[in-house]
Design a protein that fits this description.
Blueprint (H helix, E strand, L loop, with lengths): L8 H11 L8 H14 L3 E7 L3 E8 L5 E3 L15 E3 L12 H4 L6 E9 L2 E10 L7 H39 L5 H18 L1 E7 L4 E4 L1 H7 L10 H7 L5 H11 L6 E8 L5 E12 L5 E10 L1 H16 L5 E3 L5 E4 L6
Antiparallel strand pairs: 1-2, 1-6, 2-3, 4-5, 5-6, 7-8, 7-11, 9-10, 10-11, 12-13
């Protein structure tokens, strides 16, 4: 049975295209998640799937032959309409799937569980596991699948943000190199930078070394939740936002970077006036005059709070599981085992 189209299908496809991930190359971060999903759920098959208008494409797959298939043959297409897990205990007893080629053909699929990959309120695909015998997942396994599904979406978002960050940095450097251009060309570069920051949720900043006065872009003000019309930024005021346990370290790293020509980076916490804590990643480069003296530092700032929380959730699941879990590289060597191995 072909899955009905979601009511938001056109918007869903726009969001999917914006991530520019279809037909991208293999990546260890995604393959590690599928391996862990198969291990936790005890299934021979695990996939990360994305569905466009006509097909299902696998970003990562274990125990499954097809990298892509027609959308009408996809179990995951039935998960697009909702935000909950789709669970099929016995495909031969389910009218939606009993005639599906994955059930009647050589894949011989009998059971399925898929966690939706949700972005901007739409489902892009799933992290799913499948078995060739009927079975029921335990509540703990289904919870683990949901957690790992969120980790997949974090990786997709991170990949997208890195691409946007590179575009932002490119625009910043071009603006620096072309400061003497006529006004309309400067305006084009400013517009390019603004779009890059809005798409990737990446802010930019510039610090004048002589005065330690700082200029923040609109996106950076949004990250720090300040009013660009009234908040006058200085290096000292920036440090006031930094978590007190990391303030000295952040300042030391920045001061040390003024004597370097290579790009620098750091991750740290900032504290909002109401006590909320955010995680940010700062990347920057110092530019020097002809005599080698530092003149200005230009950089970017990205809110990585959601990514850090997803990584913490994944690690908590990994460490608390009573099952024997491990992470192996593609040479078969163990890189990490959970505490259950020592008990």
């Amino acid at each position: 049975m072909t899955a009905p189209l979601p009511s938001n299908e056109s918007h869903r496809l726009e969001v999917l295209r914006a991530y520019d991930i279809l037909d991208s190359g293999a990546a260890d971060a995604f393959d590690e998640i599928t391996a862990l999903a198969a291990q936790v759920c005890g299934t021979p098959v695990a996939l990360i799937t994305l569905l466009d208008g006509t097909r299902q494409w696998c970003k990562s797959r274990i125990g499954f032959h097809q990298e892509e298939m027609p959308r009408e043959d996809s179990f995951c297409a039935h998960a697009l309409a909702g935000t909950e897990l789709l669970v099929v205990h016995d495909a031969t007893a389910d009218a939606r799937f009993r005639e599906n080629p994955l059930v009647t053909g050589e894949e011989h699929i009998r059971s399925y569980a898929g966690a939706p990959l949700i972005a901007n309120g739409v489902v892009l695909g799933t992290l799913c596991v499948m078995d060739r015998v009927p079975r029921e997942m335990t509540p703990a396994q289904l919870l683990a699948l949901e957690v790992l599904g969120r980790q997949v979406m974090t990786q997709i978002q991170s990949r997208h943000d890195v691409r946007a960050l590179k575009l932002t940095e490119s625009a910043l450097l071009r603006m620096l190199d072309e400061r003497e251009l006529e006004g309309h060309r400067q305006q084009q570069l400013v517009q390019m930078l603004t779009v890059a920051q809005e798409v990737g949720k990446v802010g930019s900043w510039e610090t004048e070394v002589a005065t330690l006065e700082v200029t923040w872009s609109a996106q950076t003000h949004r990250i720090f939740e300040t009013d660009p019309d009234s908040f006058r930024v200085t290096h000292g005021k920036f440090l006031d936002f930094v978590h007190e346990d990391e303030r000295a370290m952040v300042d030391d790293v920045f001061i040390a970077s003024l004597g370097k020509e290579d790009p620098c980076g750091i991750q740290h916490r900032i504290v909002m006036p109401d006590g909320r804590v955010k995680h940010v990643e700062e990347l920057w480069q110092t530019f020097h005059d002809a005599a080698g003296r530092p003149v200005r530092a230009i950089g970017t700032c990205q809110d990585i709070t959601r990514r850090k929380h997803a990584e913490d959730e994944r690690d908590r699941l990994f460490n608390l599981s009573l099952d024997l879990l491990c992470v192996a590289n593609f040479k078969g060597l163990l890189e990490q085992v959970n505490p259950a191995w020592t008990e």
